[in-house]
Amino acid sequence: MKLSTKTRYGTRILIELALQIDQGAIQVSKISAKQKIPVKYLEQILRSLNQAGIVKSVRGPKGGHLLAKDPKGIYLGQIVRLLEGQTDLVECVSSPEKCEMSADCLVRNAWYDATSVLYEKLDGISIADLIQSSGKNNLAACPSL
User: Fold this and answer.
1) pLDDT tens, 88-97?
2) Angle at 23 (CA atoms; ends 80, 4), nearest 5 degrees
3) CATH class of domain segment(s) 5-140
C-alpha cells in the first residue's frame, strides 16, 4: 500500500498543529511555510480534517486552525481512512462482489488479514505518540511524513 501525498501532508499538518498546541490557532501561511505544503492543497486537506472533527477553524484577525481533539486521540489509522478513502489492500476484501473469483480465491483471506494487521498497528499510533517517540525538533522536519 502506498500512501498518497494527501495522507502524508495531512499527518504533517496534524503534527504541526500538535507541536503548536499551546500557541492557539495557527495560520495557513505559517503551516504552509513550515511544512512546505502548497496553500491551496493545505486548505483542501484542512477542509477534510475540519469536516471530520479533527481540526477546527477560527475566523478573524487571530484566526487559523487548531486541533479539535487531543493529539492522544488522533490515530494514524483514522487519518489514513479519512484521507485515502479505499482502505483495504485489495478491493475484494471489502467488496467481494467486484471479483468473480472472490468466493474461490485462495489469497483473499491473506489480504484481509494483512489489511487488519496494518490498521491494528496504525490504530495504535497517535499523533502524541509520534511526537513523544521522535522528539519535537526532529519530528517537524521529517520528510517521510
Assistant:
1) 888 888 888 8
2) 20
3) mainly alpha
